Amino acid sequence: MTAFPDVKQLLAEDRADGSIYSNSDLYDMEMDRIFMHNWIWVAHRSELPEPGQFITTFVGSHPVIVSRDRQGVVHVMLNRCRHRGATVCEQKHGKAASFVCPYHGWAYGLDGALRGVPHQDGYTGQLDKSKLPLVNLRVEEYNGLIFATFDKSIMSLEDWLGRAKPWIDLFMKQGAYWPIKTMGEHKFTFPGNWKIQLENTTDAYHFPIVHKPYLDSVDKETEDTFSFLDGEGYVEDLGHGHSVMVMIPDLVDLEEDLDRPIPMRFEKLAEDLSKDHTPQEVRRIVRAVGGTGFNLNLFPNLACSMAFFRVLRPLSVNETEIRHIAIGMDGGPAIANQARLRLHEHFQGPMGFGTPDDAEAWDRVQRGSLAGRDIPILLNRGIGHEAKRENGNLYSDVSAETGMRAAYRQWFADMTEENEA
Ligand code: FES
Ligand SMILES: [Fe+2]
């Protein structure tokens, strides 16, 4: 029998043991206790708007198909044939009437029901198709975000998201007058543990250091906007491991302050938009194009990060896949969506001025943290001036590690199976 690591020895309020990034027994525990017993983000509604559309993705290490059936109901099903286990779909996305296993031809409906078995008479009555559907996970949706879980007994998605919900609603205001849609993605892996990335989305402290090349690549006004470390921003613990890091408070609610001057970098876009839109509409669209001023971290695998989705998938204890999914306005002006894509590429793209620098830092954390024994990873920044809001949320200044502490509290609760944070 495997002896599970003693999690209580590995984490304190203000520090974690360096082995949390490299202990493979701990990783196996995480895959079970965190990724099979929480709500895991799988898709945005716009990725499968019509009946018959599907995508393939993962819940933790488990391949799944997310499909929309003829009635419009979304299903998340294990991508595993009930005969001998082959994946039944290898396409990233598409439209289908059914999923036919390529090995012996068993055919499944969009809801996973087993509809056809070639040469079924060979089973001489010993195969009940109704008992062999693709295994369906529990699925719930909030404001376009689709989540799934293996666990039939955990709380509803709305309860799980809890105090993060108003922030999701604010994030979706980037659609301006239209719903949000996904517009493609950059995908890469880095040789490090998934928690290094989980921490990073709520780490403002690194921004002026790691992202100096980005700050050097933009105009002075944009550089000032992104020099937020001494500003009025804050990090807030939203419960259940979720947190929000507000870097640019002026960009929290994109429907407010429409009278502000248009930033220099959007002047040309505003001029072009004004040919087809009223001045009020132009201001609203331009504000949406610039994105929000906050990163919303949803434990354990999704960040609604300023103007895109950042999705993490652990591949092994020391390898993680990251997807940066661009988002835009579904039905909005093409020039506005193009502007959003260019901004996305500028920071998040493979040749961007932001993400490659982040990835280098994560790689170095993984390698450096292997040095020595019993040397802690510090998580104590901002703990001395952390305070509580009326609703109970802990908060601290923008560069505090409050969001990391929030994530690790839920991590600890899941790993020790104590009550949720
Ligand atoms: S493994 Fe799928 S039909 Fe045999
Ligand atoms: Fe970064």
TrEMBL record:
Keywords linked to the UniProt accession: 2Fe-2S, Iron, Iron-sulfur, Metal-binding, Oxidoreductase
Gene3D superfamilies from the UniProt entry: Naphthalene 1,2-dioxygenase Alpha Subunit, Chain A, domain 1, Rieske [2Fe-2S] iron-sulphur domain
SUPFAM superfamilies the record matches: Bet v1-like (SSF55961), ISP domain (SSF50022)
Metal-binding recorded as keyword: yes
Cofactor(s), by name: Fe cation
Molecular function in Gene Ontology: 2 iron, 2 sulfur cluster binding; iron ion binding; oxidoreductase activity
Pfam families in UniProt: Rieske, Ring_hydroxyl_A
Ranges where the Rieske domain occurs: 39-148
Domain of life: Bacteria
InterPro entries, A to Z: Rieske_2Fe-2S, Rieske_2Fe-2S_sf, Ring_hydroxy_dOase_asu_C_dom, Rng_hydr_dOase-A
UniProt xrefs under CDD domains: RHO_alpha_C_AntDO-like, Rieske_RO_Alpha_N
Signal peptide interval: none
UniProt name for this protein: Rieske (2Fe-2S) protein
Species name: Acetobacter ascendens
